[in-house]
Specification:
single chain, alpha/beta, 25 strands, globular, disordered N terminus
């Protein structure tokens, strides 16, 4: 044994190893043999593992995760687990590892004083850890500071789901949700609350919010499972949920063994019966209960596609709305498009939203068959509302339906026709949008201007749910250089604004400020916009970090000649503290106060405002302060309050 410890020390390990008295020497030898190679692989990741007598504990707060590896009876499996942990800790270093053999509840409790990690991770030698399994659990708790714990998706050897979160019953038993189902099923691909974790792969916080000392009232091979369920119920009663994280996957090597224990069930009910009733109150079906732990209602949102959050303001707004809705209900996003669009769909699922792509009547019928408590249906955009409204009325007759205009399309097209003289079908679209507004139980707009317009046309139940201007990590300074226009150029008002700026406004500015630069940024530039890249204008195309690019400039020139609703680009520039030069259309819905904005309606007026904002430091500072003041009114909290007001009216 001493020779094995010397090997570990020689490889640079520096943490603690908890050895049970009954751990066989051959098992220890096999584990440390595997560890020897692992330490070499993860030295940079600071995998901490060594005998207690080395006395080199990590500095408090330095360790991210304290790992309790549950050693099984097989040295080969325990060694394999250590090798997988060595791989996983590279992504969340530094970590420390404790090997726990018999009586894991008592050992874990004794080790609480020694553990240095912000998180505690328990994993079993009976599992295969998929790549990123530990990092996925850490990400879930980092994203939701109120959550106490997170569990992995557990798969069986046949690659189907073995456990996608447990639902506790009133008698102390549990229903294993998803057992035997496909991991590709939308029901099992999003983060959600569960009733109890399995002692297979579970991460919890080490502080007060996490699972505190595990109760030692349970016995037998499932003692740790019941102790974890007990602790999770205690955390839930204090408002701290346990999450199921499908981005963390482990596979069981075998599924043999008892799955329930009547004696422990009775103990759990005696200790936590009230908490079980409160957390897992039964819905009309087991399916509805499992998918809505902690909620009593579901909101069904329908849009054309998943939010492309880094490409257009409408998508950013929808993503913010979905995340805000998850605080009050089980949220389902159905999209007309059949694709999840990779990371865009993943972001929505990680926010706790169930995503169903290619939504059709068959999928809607399944939701109704499962008796999900759908109280509100949110139809986003006119074309989507027109396509789904009748089916929603038929399948969910008791649900309240809200029509989210995003912006009033007919207003935008009417203004477009007035500016370009090219005919549009705004009159037909006006009839469609007004008919939808009257047929639904409520209509959502982003500004008071559009609410007033609808009320003038006889639509009375109109709610303002605008958008949030999140504070970016970088702010503009007067040392910035050049001016910037940005947007998504699949949207015609942005194409028109960018070309008007380059063709008519920029030459006027350069007569007074020779050599001033102009950047036109954003996804999907048209060929007409790309041609300006060869004529003294920087056309970037898609930019992954748009806020950083904005902040490098001195002025945001956003001359929008037509459009409707609140202009997300104007709010985004303001949130960066950037002086904004725009039109009355650009400011519409953002402010109704008499504030000293840089506004113009003609090329000459806008050029003069740009020159003044760019060259007059006092004016620059005034506009920068004004931008930040206005952006602060469009906070995430303000958006949540507007959303709550609209949904509360819908419930009455």
């Amino acid at each position: 044994m001493r020779r094995l410890f010397t090997i570990a020390r020689a490889q640079g390990a520096a943490a603690v190893l908890s050895r049970g008295a009954d751990l066989a020497l051959r098992t220890m030898a096999a584990c440390l043999s595997a560890l020897r190679a692992s330490v070499v692989e993860t030295r940079d990741a600071s995998l901490l593992w060594a005998p207690r007598r080395l006395n080199t504990p990590a500095a408090p707060g330095a360790v991210v995760v304290s790992i309790y590896a549950l050693a099984g009876t097989s040295p080969r499996r325990t060694s394999a687990l250590l090798r997988m942990l060595a791989r996983e800790t590279k992504k969340v270093a530094p970590c420390e590892v404790f090997l726990v053999d018999e009586q894991p509840v008592a050992q874990i409790n004794r080790l609480r004083e020694k553990a240095k990690g912000r998180y505690v991770y328990v994993c079993s030698a009976n599992t295969i850890l998929h790549d990123g399994s530990l990092a996925g659990l850490v990400a879930a708790l980092e994203r939701d500071p109120s959550a106490a714990a997170a569990v992995s998706q557990i798969r069986s050897p046949d690659r189907r789901i073995a456990d996608a979160g447990r639902l506790l019953r009133n008698d102390g038993s549990w229903h294993v949700y998803g057992q035997g189902e496909s991991p590709r099923d939308p029901r099992f691909r999003y983060v959600r609350s569960i009733g109890a974790p399995a002692a297979v792969s579970v991460l919890w916080r080490s502080g007060e919010i996490g699972l505190n000392a595990l109760p030692e009232a349970y016995t037998g091979p499932l003692a740790l499972d019941y102790a974890l369920a007990d602790a999770a119920l205690g955390a839930a009663s204090a408002g701290h949920k346990t999450l199921y994280q499908p981005a963390s996957v482990v596979t069981l090597r075998d599924t043999a063994g008892a799955s329930q224990d009547p004696a422990n069930q009775s103990t759990l009910v005696q200790r936590r019966g009230a908490e079980i009733d409160a957390l897992c109150s039964q819905q009309s079906s087991l399916e509805a209960t499992a998918r809505a732990v902690g909620h009593t209602e579901a909101i069904l949102v329908v849009d054309d596609h998943v939010p492309f959050t880094d490409r257009d303001a409408g998508s950013e707004r929808m993503a913010d709305l979905l995340e805000s809705m998850t605080a009050r209900a089980h949220v389902i996003l159905g999209t007309a498009k059949h694709r999840a669009y990779g990371p865009y769909g993943d972001r929505i699922r990680q926010a706790g939203v169930e995503l169903i792509t290619g939504l059709n009547e068959e999928a809607l019928a399944r939701l109704a068959q499962w008796q999900l408590p759908v109280r509100t249906i949110w139809l986003s955009r006119a074309d989507v509302a027109a396509r789904y409204l009748l089916a929603m009325r038929r399948i969910f007759p008791n649900a309240r339906i809200l029509y989210d205009t995003v912006d009033l399309h007919f207003v935008r097209l009417q203004r477009q026709q007035a500016v370009t003289s090219a005919p549009t079908d705004w009159a037909r679209l006006e009839g469609t949008e007004l008919a939808l507004a009257r047929a639904c139980d409520g209509t959502i707009v982003t500004s008071g201007v559009e609410r007033a317009l609808l009320r003038e046309r006889g639509v009375q139940t109109v709610h303002i749910v605008s958008m949030a201007a999140a504070t970016p990590p970088v702010r503009a300074t007067a040392e910035g250089s050049g001016m910037i226009f940005f947007g998504n150029y699949a949207h015609l008002p942005n194409v028109d604004g960018a070309l008007w700026l380059a063709q008519e406004i920029l030459p006027r500015v350069r007569r007074r400020l020779p050599g001033i630069g102009l950047t036109i940024a954003g996804a999907d530039p048209t060929p007409e916009i790309w041609r300006w890249h060869l004529d003294g204008v920087a056309v970037t195309g898609y930019v992954p970090d748009l806020d950083a690019l904005i902040a490098r400039h001195r002025v945001a020139a956003l001359p929008l000649r037509f459009g409707a609703g609140v202009k997300g680009k104007v709010l985004r520039a303001m949130a960066c503290g950037m002086p904004v030069v725009t039109t009355p259309i650009g400011l519409e819905g953002i402010t109704e106060r008499d504030e000293r904005f840089a506004v113009g309606s003609t090329a000459e007026e806008l050029a003069a405002e740009i020159v003044r904002a760019y060259s007059d430091l006092e004016r620059w500072n005034e506009l920068s302060h004004l931008s930040q003041t206005v952006a602060a009114r469009f906070s995430e909290r303000a958006l949540a309050e507007q959303l709550d007001a609209a949904l509360n009216v819908a419930e009455r």
